[in-house]
Amino acid sequence: MKNYIVRILARKHRKDKRFKLHEGVMVVVDPHSEEKDEIIDISLGGLAFCYNNERNRPDEIFEIDIYIDNELYLKKLKVKLISETEIGEVPFESANVRRLSGQFMWWEPLQKADLDSLLKKYGIGKA
Asked: Residue 34 belongs to what domain range?
């Protein structure tokens, strides 16, 4: 219940509107892996995504790449880990699915414009 209340209060205080995205927009946390994870929602301020905890947990500050239809769209976005919670189990495996929320940090010159373009083209409404 506490996590639910915290999430509701956070939504009211967010500076940037979060969006759901069309299918095919994915995030990669480990550049040495081909595993792509589903983005739950995203804004100019940050994102939330699901990942399988069999892999290494990201550091407090980590980089992501965003792919659209398996093509690299944005690379090396710096993200600060805000929260991580378990949301379910993977059937027939010993792994759990976790939700990770992060805040974008240290923009490179065109990254923010490219992300804004992604939201306009692939966003499907408020999260």
From this structure: 17-126
Give the number of domains in the chain.
1
Q: CA dist 83 to 46, 100, 104, 113, Å?
A: 12, 6, 13, 26
pTM equals: 0.80
Query: 11 lies in a domain?
Result: no
CA angle 103, 37, 94 (to 5 degrees): 115
Tell me, what CATH number does 95's domain have?
2.40.10.220
Tens digits of residue pLDDT in 61-106: 999 999 999 999 999 999 999 998 888 766 656 677 889 999 999 7
